[in-house]
């Protein structure tokens, strides 16, 4: 058995992936996690695919080399859409063949189909919806399933700037057209939306199954590690949780505290 010295990295363009990291720690508390938010370059949604790829590669390389991660989860849907395949097929193969990068889109769709979903709504950033990646991937898993995507660009600004009093009105405006399609499930295709999942469940009167990635990724990672003992045996188990960001300010520190339920030191990372 190899020495257990490697950590699990979670990468997002900003803050939303911290919900995924927190859920992973709660579900699999024995492992050590490093969360990296690229706060200096957030948001990714308006950038070119080449730029998103380069930013994602830089962040993952930093997690591999500076933070001793051997397994990195790309929590950011935009980065998963734009960069994941190339990262897995070229960057890893050519530079770090023994390390692994996992995304959130395929596990989310696998969970949907395992629950019998066929009429699947998707709310996400314009970049994610326009890419049609969810449509493309679902046909590989369940060809008869359909994705009804709607871009919801106002949600992240409302979440980040405490616009709760406008949230229900905006959500209803976004959701009504796709709910009319007779959905059985609705994917929250942006990590930020984890924070409003209960509000969405209430707004939809629990008529559709809400698929939130903080509930999906932890059991999927558990299954992955069971099936890949060669990776699991490398992972350290000290129940440690480290938060890093490419730019740290008071607002970010406060948001981290709100999500995690306690004050955490944040390491500023440069690469």
Description:
Helix content is 48%, strand content 18%. It is α/β, with parallel strands linked by helices and 271 residues long. It has 2 domains: 151 residues, Rossmann fold (3-Layer(aba) Sandwich); 108 residues, Rossmann fold (3-Layer(aba) Sandwich). The strands form 2 sheets. A 6-stranded parallel sheet has the order 4-3-1-2-9-10, sandwiched between helices. The model has no long low-confidence stretch (mean pLDDT 95).
Essential attributes:
12 helices; 271 residues; single chain; globular; alpha/beta; 4-stranded parallel beta sheet
Order of helices and strands: EHEHEHEHEHHEHHEHEHHEHE
Bin the helical content: 40-55%
- Mean residue pLDDT: 95
User: What is the count of β-strands?
Assistant: 10
Question: How is this structure best summarized?
Answer:
This protein has 271 residues and is an alpha/beta fold. It has helices at 17-27, 49-65, 77-95, 105-114, 126-131, 133-141, 155-160, 164-179, 197-203, 213-227, 229-232, 250-260; strands at 7-12, 33-37, 69-74, 100-102, 119-124, 146-151, 185-188, 209-212, 241-245, 266-268.
